[in-house]
Amino acid sequence: LDCARGIISFIYPPICEICDTKIDPARAGNNTVCESCLSKIMPFMPAGFLKFDDIKVWAVCTYEGIIRDCIHLLKYKSRLDLLKPLNKLLTDFANKYLKTDKFDLSG
Q1: Mean pLDDT of 99-105
Q2: CB-based burial label for 44 (10 Å; 0-12, 13-18, 19+)
Q3: pLDDT tens, residue by residue, 33-86
Q4: Cβ contacts of 21 within 8 Å, gap of 6 or more
Q5: CA distance 35 to 74
Q6: Using an 8 Å Cβ cutoff, are 47 and 97 in contact?
Q7: How far is it, in rounded angstroms, from Cα 64 to Cα 71?
Q8: Which pTM value belongs to this model?
Q9: Which residues lie below 8 Å from residue 40, measured CB to CB, with a gap of 6+?
């Protein structure tokens, strides 16, 4: 079965769903978005929040570009391979800007 997958990925290499470039089959795993696109997702610097009544609302990124595309792929195409990089983005943000002792960030 692994041999068949290897042959298929050699003939039809995985393609990034954002930029349409080929993803190296040896490094792709189940990833549908290339590392280059994922590295372009930039969180807000410095972090800020909006306050609604007594509730603080944080935004990690502006909902546009690659982050928007990744969220749509996850939500509408069930691209579960995006859970890990998006989780890392959120936990890195939380560790840097929030009082993480109030959150369970184990993942």
Answers
A1: 65
A2: middle
A3: 888 888 888 777 666 677 778 777 778 888 889 999 999 999 999 988 889 889
A4: 15, 34, 36
A5: 16
A6: yes
A7: 10
A8: 0.69
A9: 65, 66
